[in-house]
Each structure stands twice: as structure tokens, then as C-alpha cells.
Amino acid sequence: MPGGGRCPDCGSTELVEDSHYSQNQLVCSDCGCVVTEGVLTTTYTDEGNLREVTYSRSTGENEQVSRSQQRGLRRVRDLCRVLQLPPTFEDTAVAYYQQAYQHSGIRAARLQKKEVLVGCCVLITCRQRNWPLTMGTICTLLYADLDMFSGTYMQMVRLLGLDVPSLCLVDLVKTYCSSFKLFEASPSVPAKYVEDKEKMLSRTLQLVELADETWLVTGRHPLPVITAATFLAWQSLRPSDRLTCSLARFCKLANVDLPYPASSRLQELLAVLLRLAEQLAWLQVLKLDKRSVVAHIGDLLQHRHMLVRKAFRDGTAEPGALDAREEELQGPGQGQGWGREDRGHGSLDLPAGKRPASPALLLPPCMLKPPKRICPTPPVSTVTGDENISDSEIEQYLRTPQEVRDFQRAQATRQAATSVPNPP
Amino acid sequence: MEGEETYLELYLARCAAQDDLAPPRSPLLSPIVPYDVYTSNPETTFNSQLEEVTVTSGNFSSVDLSFLPDELTQENKDQTVIRSKHETEENCKTKSWQSRLPLPSQQDVGLALNSSGGSNSHSHLHPGDADSAQPSPEKPHSLPLASITPMTPVTPVSECSGIVPQLQNIVSTVNLACKLDLKKIALHAKNAEYNPKRFAAVIMRIREPRTTALIFSSGKMVCTGAKSEEQSRLAARKYARVVQKLGFPARFLDFKIQNMVGSCDVRFPIRLEGLVLTHQQFSSYEPELFPGLIYRMVKPRIVLLIFVSGKVVLTGAKERSEIYEAFENIYPILKGFKKT
């Protein structure tokens, strides 16, 4: 009870605000004594029990605000509470909603759009405070479709001139991974599938970082990459028991939706890991494939920076530099003493005849795939725009009178045919 | 790419053909030549001294245009922008401009610039150069004309891209200035479709140039799908002719290009996350919504879609030069994100 008021009769502090008809009264909930009566006229003793009048009551600000806007503001607060956001987020989101509402385009929009606008305000607030909230989550909560959401979101950012930072990948990984239900045994999750949260989280973070470095994240939706990385991290922590589990089954166990692109992200990530494995001396002999490489993900991640530099080139590195790097990395103990020698010669500590694989180009997958169709350069056009247009060229587009009659007859019969199946 | 060069060459040929004067190089060597001689009777003066031009390697980075009279200090911006593109392209290709100096060829931008400047009073140089165009003829420079500064903001030769965006689509509008009966058009024209419940216009298509037109009953028409401005104009005229042949008094008023779309490939991958961090006031990158980055350039007012594969789409232009300029502006920015 704010104000520390006490009932003059029984001394209890349980005072509640109640209204008798239209007049506000402060009443003791224990003995029923009316402590203060009315707001305008008070006696000296009453003044000790005065309650503060809330701002919204005294200024009548809600009378200025339209009912639709009030509803929207209530929805914003509700959404913040459902998402369990910190309290300061609510005020910011409400402020954004009010700011957006000042624009006539938003005021005149349909209710559906105003509903989506609620989500946009919350999303922008979360993005600015680095709270990892995806658009998919908001659309699911609001039962809105992504197209509607994207249009309203882009419009709002442009209208208010906002600077919205990108989704923070690290925070998203932490939140998303924590939502996987694999950290305790349950009837649906056998013991061999249960995993320690910290280990899985750190390994997933390393895998996502690797994916980011090798162009698997730019331009793509972030969530499927994280799903694939979580799956690989989980598998690699106990490969012998978990290799048999597929991605779909994993998501079902963990009670998480499987996003559609996740399986292709998984294949891309495995291909990158295989390329890295080719650069590690003790893995080259094993002739790994997409299943067996999972067991060695721990080693690969430990040396990932060096391996990426070694396994990939960006097309501008000179061949000489590559040779020097390759030899430097044959093992942790060997130094720079090899000097520049041709590849495949005896200085490399490998089985006879084997050389490290030549570095692949570090490019996004869309650049590595062959183009679907070769775009031919258009023929040189010498059109001036003022050429003569021959009559015959235009006539080819016109119907002869006979054709017109035929067409009209055909249209009439079609009309008759469509109207017949509806008997009166 | 050849198509673009041919276009530029044609343009330059047209401009150079208007002026059959030799380049006015002589004022530099004989600084006392008065300016009216320069404009009125340049041919004899120039031709006689053409042979005396010596190619001396000098400091041509400090171009002194002081010999040119003030009226020559404004140049048609479009001409120069296109020419400067051509010039920067030329600079990329040929390291020594000396080889192309002696002959007043049409290819030589600098010379063409001045030959047109010598004869046409309406050809102008950029106002920015007006400061240096004060008469101070006591400093003879060795052939600075060929390296006249381009009109666009200074782009060092080493940064020019050598890539020319290709136009993919032109949208234009024209007013036929008569009320049209869409039902009649749809009945008498083979290449028309009209569904009033779906859309209140006739959709007509022609094969050459391959375009589509929306024809409204008010007489206004929108023509889309052409690959160049001239093709768009020709196509619009053909549609107007079709409407004329159908019996309407169609005219061809206010033809205007409303939008041009171009595309090109820089051939290296781009870190879109980095680009949105450094250019956040212009860029919008939402991978959850769209795989490309939307860059809203302020000058020229063009929207660019930049993808991770290095492909760039430029749209929102009313002139071809805006697309070229926008690409030349974005190329150094993209190159900054080339290394991973």
C-alpha cells in the first residue's frame, strides 16, 4: 500500500480504493471504515490518507487517445508480458506504437495491419536491446503471415527513420539451444540422448562461428543453420550412440520444430567439415565421409581457425604462400624449417604418394554451384526509336472481320454453355 | 558489354559528327590567341598548328583549363557523365594516353569534348571547373586537354570497375489522348487480353521489341519489358499504331521513361553483415525476410539490391547515366568487403 496509510479505527494498513457510485473512496478492508471520501474536499485528518492520483486519471490523456490506439497499446503490453520481456521494453514498445500511430497511413490502416504493427514495435524494441527474438516467433504468436509482417515492418522502419541492428547470432544460439528439451531424461528422451547444456552450447557456438566464416550464414535465414549446428554438436558429443538418429527425429525428441532448410544447411556444414578434415594429417588416412567425420568434430573445431585458413583460399592468394602454409601446419611441433618446396615431395610427413588436397575456393554455396542458365549477352541493338512501322507488322496483330465474327460466335456459345448448368 | 560500348561510341560519333573541327590544342602553344579567333575561325588556326603539337610527357594531373572562355565552362552533364565513363574505361585499358592523342579520333573523349566545345556555344563544362577557366594564358601545358577531369566526383583511375551494368527492363508511359473502348480493342486485336473483373485495362503484347503494354480506357498506356530507351519508345509507338488501326484517334503525347532496371556482377562474394554495419543509414539487411541487402543511395536516387554472390540489381533510375553513376559509387564500397 503506497503512502503508508493506516485506518484510524483499527490501525490496519490494508486500505483499498473503492468507488461508491462515481466517487472514489479509500476503505479499510478489515473493518470497513471509510478513510477518505472524495478527492476535491478533504479535512485535515483526511489529508494524511490521501492517495496519489494516477497521471492517466488526472490529465484525461486517454480521452485524447482513440479506442483503437488504446487497444493497440494494450496488445503491445500483453505481448511483452507473454514474451516475458524486461519491464523497460514495454515502455519503449508503447512509445514506438504511439509514434507510429501519428502517421496517417498507419491510422487509416486495417485492423489486421494494426495487429501486425504491435508485433513490429515489440520486435524493434528487442532488436535494439539485443534480445534475440525472431520474426517467425512473433508471427506465430500473432497468427499473422510473414508477408504481411514484412511489409508493415519495412514501412515502419522507413516512416520512423529507425536504425534497427541485426539479429545477434550468439544470443539467438543461446536462447534457441536452451529451448531444446534434451538436458534431462524423460520418457521420450532415453539416457544416451541426454546431454549437458554447457557443452552442447559451446560446441554449437563454435559450429555456427565456423558456418559464418565459410559463407553459410550470409543471406540465409539464421535459424536453420543453428538447428543443423545444434544437431551436429549433439551428435558429436557421443557419436557411437547418436549417429543413428536423424535430424527429423532429433527435433521431435527435443520438442522443436524442424525448419525446412535445415537439412540442406546440414549437408553444407558437413561438406565444410570434410574439407577441413582433409587438412589434418591424422585424419587424412581415415578417408572420412559424411557420417564418420561427426566423430572428429571436436578435433576439427579445436583447430578450426588454422584449418579454415589452410583449407580454403579466396582466389587471390598466390600459390607460393599456400605451399608455405601447408608445410607449416603438418603438425603442431614442426616449425618453419621446411622452406618452400614443391607439393608432394618427401618433406611432407605423409603416406607415400599422398598430398594435402588443394585448397578449395572459399565462396558462398550459390557461387559454387554451376549457373542454371548461361545468360547470353544481348545482341547489339541499333534501334533508334523513330523507325518506320510498316502496316503489315501492325496488321499481324489485328483480327480479320471473319475472325471477329467467329470469335464473337464462340464467346456467345461459351456464355450459353456456362449459364445452362444452373437450372432455375 | 559490347552493346554498351557501341552505344557510347554511337553517341560520341553523333556528337563528334556535329562538330567537324579539329581539337583546339593550339591556344596552349600560342597563348596570345584571342578568344573570338578561337571560336570563329578555329579551323585554319588549328590545322596549321596541328603538326607542331609535340607529345611531351608532363604533369597532366594538374589540368589547367584557363585558356577556355567562360561560356565553355558549362557542359551538358549527361554527355560528360557518359563520356567520363568512357574515358575512365579508356584510362583503365590504355596506360599511355599519348598514343591516342595525335589524331582527333572520335574515340578520344578529351578531344571530342573540346571539339564540341569549340564550335557549339551550348556545350559546357562542369561549373566546378569554372574556377580554373580564368584567362591565364601564360602557362603552356603539354597537352592537358586529353586528360580533362571527368564530371562525376573524382574517381581515381585505379578504382574504376570496368564493369558496365546491363539494362534489363524499362517502364515508360505515354498518353494516347483519346477515350478508348477496351471491349472493342480486346475483340479486334489478337494480342490483347481483357478481364474487367480482374484488372481494368487491356494487356497487349507485341513480339518485336518483346514488350507488354497496359492500355487504360482513359487513353493512358504503360509499356514494360524493353531493354533500352529506344526500344521502349519504338514499342510504345507500335502499340499506339495498333490502337490507331482499330479506329481510335490515338496520338503519342508525353512519352516518358518512368523506371529503368539494370543488373551486373562484381564477381566476388560480399559480406552483407559488414556492409550493413558500416552503411547502416542507407542499408537494410533482413536475412529472415530477403536474402539481399537493400541499399538506398541518395545521390543518385537509386535502390540497389546487393546479394552475397556479388550480383547487383539497380532500379529506380529515370536515366541510364544514373544507373552507371550508382554502380560506380557502390563498386569501391563493395570492394572494401571483398576479403573475408
TrEMBL record, chain A:
Its main location: nucleus. One of its GO terms (cellular component) is transcription preinitiation complex. Residues 3-36 form the TFIIB-type domain. Pfam families: BRF2-like_C_cyclin_rpt (PF21886), Zn_Ribbon_TF (PF08271). Keywords: Activator, Metal-binding, Nucleus, Repeat, Transcription, Transcription regulation, Zinc, Zinc-finger. The keyword Nucleus applies. Coiled coil: none annotated. Residues 324-391 are annotated as: Disordered. One of its GO terms (biological process) is transcription preinitiation complex assembly. InterPro entries: BRF2-like_C, Cyclin-like_sf, TFIIB, Znf_TFIIB. GO terms for molecular function: TBP-class protein binding; zinc ion binding. It is found in: Nucleus. The keyword Transcription applies. Belongs to the TFIIB family. General activator of RNA polymerase III transcription. Factor exclusively required for RNA polymerase III transcription of genes with promoter elements upstream of the initiation sites. Contributes to the regulation of gene expression; functions as activator in the absence of oxidative stress. Down-regulates expression of target genes in response to oxidative stress. Overexpression protects cells against apoptosis in response to oxidative stress. Component of TFIIIB complexes. The TFIIIB complex has two activities, alpha and beta. The TFIIIB-alpha activity complex is composed of TBP, BDP1, and a complex containing both BRF2 and at least four stably associated proteins; this complex inhibits the transcription by pol III via its phosphorylation by CK2; YY1 facilitates the TFIIIB-alpha complex formation. Interacts with TBP; this interaction promotes recruitment of BRF2 to TATA box-containing promoters. This is Transcription factor IIIB 50 kDa subunit. It comes from Balaenoptera acutorostrata.
UniProtKB/TrEMBL annotation, chain B:
Residues 110-122 have a biased composition (Low complexity). It comes from the Eukaryota. Residues 76-93 have a biased composition (Basic and acidic residues). Residues 76-150 are annotated as: Disordered. Its main location: nucleus. InterPro entries: TBP, TBP_CS, TBP_dom_sf, TBP_eukaryotic. It holds the Pfam family TBP. One of its GO terms (molecular function) is DNA binding. Signal peptide: none annotated. Keywords: DNA-binding, Nucleus, Transcription. Residues 94-108 have a biased composition (Polar residues). It is found in: Nucleus. The keyword Nucleus applies. One of its GO terms (biological process) is DNA-templated transcription initiation. GO terms for cellular component: nucleus. Belongs to the TBP family. This is TATA box-binding protein-like 2. The gene is TBPL2.
